[in-house]
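Morning run. Coffee first, then this:
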Amino acid sequence: MIFISPIIMKAQPAVPSETTGMINAAVNERGELKIVPAPKSSEKDFDFFYGSWKVYGKRLKSRLHHSNEWIPFTAKLNCSKMIGGYANIEPFYTQANGKDFEAFTLRLFDSATRLWSIYYAYPSNVSMQNPQVGSFQNNIGWFYARDVWEGKDIMIVYRWDRTDSEKPTMCQAFSADNGKTWEWNYLQSFEKIKE
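And here it is:
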């Protein structure tokens, strides 16, 4: 689950046009979330993201309460390749409530299932449990997890768009009805820092 406090930004990403996040995933009759890999899923899926990036984002002030108030933020990150591309790490730096804020993402590719697992940690949630799991369908990546928000069971989807590999985007949505409807609540666009 991603949470970043606001700071000033220069550009804002758009809300995705999709009304659902159920791509290569489904909830079966027992309520289990089943995720299958896209046909061309591979350890090279995140190669476009290696290096340093400026982040321009916004998040809903209130999630799953029909909010329309977006809070902007900016950040910096650096994504590094590990173990031949089967993993990558991404420290993330911003300001939260006037203080430095650091988060960390670890992505692991399972060559047996051909699925990525994405772990996101920040100071109040340092855990290797409950990853977002999925793959890229062409240039769009869909990654899912079950979680709890304000005491409610929810599903979370991350949607990565690498169509423009120099300006990719990542968005997050919550569903409180097993993926029938989704609320986009966290949007990021990235600008490569030339080194």
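Confidence is low (pLDDT under 50) at residues 1-9. Good start to the day.
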